[in-house]
Amino acid sequence: MTDLDRHVRQPGRDKLVKQVRAKINELGVEYIFFQFISVTGRVVGKGIPTDHWERTCEKGFQLVYGATANLFVDRHGDYIGYGPEAKELVGIPDPETFCQLPWDKKVARVFVTCFRNREERDNPGAHLTSDCRGNLRIHAQEFKKKHGYQLRVGTEPEMMWLTKNEDGSPTGKGFSKPYCYHIDQFESLRPVFMKVFEYARAMGFDMIQGDHEDAPGQLELNWMYDDVLRNADRLSTYRQICAQVAREFNLIACFMTKPFMGVSASGCHTNMSLWKGGKDRINKLSHKSIPAMDDVFTYVEGGTNYFMPDTNDIQLPGKVGLKAIGGVMKHLGALTAIGSSTVNSYRRLWDTGFWAPVYADWGFQNRTCGLRVSAPGRFEYRSVDSMHNPYLMGSGLLKCFDDGITNNIDPGKPESRSMYDAQAAGKKVKKLPLSLGEALNRLEEDEVIKSAMPDEMYKVFHWYKNDEWERFLGATTQWDLDTYLDCLP
For 52, what's the count of Cα atoms within 13 Å in the CB-facing half-sphere? Predict the structure, then answer.
């Protein structure tokens, strides 16, 4: 039996498929987006009428392998990852992720898992290794089987709401003024964030807080942390929600890391904890207000958090948590290629004075470090920005944690001083990679982080991102013209 066959026939799936059919009929849903995630975190897939729900659940749909690389060509004109001669992947829906779109209730979405074509000569029906979402599920299962821990994650998705010209082009300005935590500026975007809140809640998010951040039009809206895969799905869904709200308000939902210099960039700090035990619960409030699949509103709660302090030092994570931090510290350079995955990401690190994480150290609530214990029981990785792919990041963190726990890696003592003061006092501190090219080189040397992108996934990622870096190096920019156009004679 192939991986595809096992996925289709997994226990309980038939019941879920029937439950979705009942929900389709109850809600009057006519169309479904069957979607997966590309190498850059883009949502891709197909739309299929609900008449074909059962058949698609059994047989799947076909799409070119190159969709996992956005079907982009490199600077030499070659398709990244897979050529036009490659077979087609098979997308099999995961019925537990079915959810009605609140902005058009005749449409729903469901995430899919991707497999190699049934007729491939090599590994027919095997997991498609360039499916980053499928990889994350496998890595999370392997980690739990080996260590007994579940990785739970919460993200802080900063992004900016930008204005448009009459022709639809960007004005280059944010909707509001760059006043951090200012309620009046938050209020100016109230119709926007309340619509985001409405849609997010309807799609099962447990929204917990929000604020105006440091840059023009920059908001951060947060939801409850959860299992690493569920959280990645919610972040992808949140981006889709913001794009829809932007269409409704004639704005641009900007997830570009650094569209403006002189103000803060958009980060996506990733908070982590390791748990044993716990169980799923239903978010009853959302379930009562919006009719949809129970599973959409499922959260995990309870259990034992192994990042909580287990000594007399209330600031120091538990022994297991410290080993996990040690693993992240060891692989920070390579991990930066995933968390800061674009050329523009490094504008965030070079524009000084905005608390961007450039130092490869850790501390307790110390924002001058690339890593920090943000509160007892959770660990924050700060070198992650709004453009990152959360499925690749989740897999990378699991591999770091595995290395740290397996090999008892000591992260060293946490730094309580400002990193600038520590350096002035003589401390030798390493910096994170400060360009995409440097980060890609560090990734190429790190077999642990590369294992988070098995086989074709690393080939696609490296090809795509190395081409992006080479295109940048070969491009003449406005800075070039401003600096060199009339420098001689």
Answer: 14
Strand, helix or coil at 103? coil
For the chain, the farthest-separated pair of C-alpha atoms sits apart, in whole angstroms, at 77
Q: Are 202 and 223 in contact (CB under 8 A)?
A: no
CB atoms within 10 A of CB 213: 26
Instruction: Please measure the distance between the N-terminal and C-terminal CA atoms of the chain and give it in whole angstroms.
Output: 73
pLDDT for 430 equals 82
Helix (H) or strand (E) holding 235: helix 228-249
Radius of gyration (C-alpha) of the chain in whole angstroms: 23
Alpha carbons 44 and 64: distance in angstroms, whole number:
11
φ and ψ at residue 199, rounded to 5 degrees: -70, -40
Residue 382 to residue 271: CA distance in whole angstroms: 9
Domain boundaries, the chain: 3-130, 141-454
Amino acid at 204: G
Looking at the domain covering 141-454, what would its CATH class be? alpha beta
In the numeric block, the tokens 């929600």 are attached to 241
pLDDT mean values, one per 10 residues, the chain (489 residues): 96 95 96 98 98 98 97 96 94 96 97 96 96 98 97 96 91 91 95 97 95 95 96 98 97 94 91 92 53 64 92 89 95 96 92 71 78 88 94 98 97 80 78 94 98 97 98 95 92
* Residue whose tokens read 């035990």: 277
C-alpha separations of 279 from 28, 96, 151, 176, 488 in Å: 32, 16, 14, 41, 70
Closest CA to 96 of 148, 18, 198: 18
What pLDDT is attached to residue 169? 86
State the DSSP code for 163: E
> To 5 degrees, how large is the angle CA 321–CA 327–CA 332?
125
What global pTM score does this model have?
0.95
49 token code pair = 């009428």
What is the rounded CA–CA span in Å between residue 55 and residue 166? Answer: 45
CA–CA distance, 72 with 253 (Å, rounded to integer): 23
Judge if 3-130 and 141-454 fold alike in CATH terms: no
CATH superfamily for domain 3-130: Glutamine synthetase, N-terminal domain (3.10.20.70)
Give the distance from CA 124 to its chain's centroid: 29
CB atoms within 10 A of CB 155: 24
Exposure letters 387-397 (e unless 16+ CB within 10 A, then b): bbbbbbbbbbb
198: burial class by Cβ within 10 Å (0-12, 13-18, 19+)? middle
Amino acid identity, residue 475? A
Q: For helices 332-339 and 390-406, what crossing angle results, to 10°? A: 170
- Rounded Cα distance, 469 and 41, in Å: 18
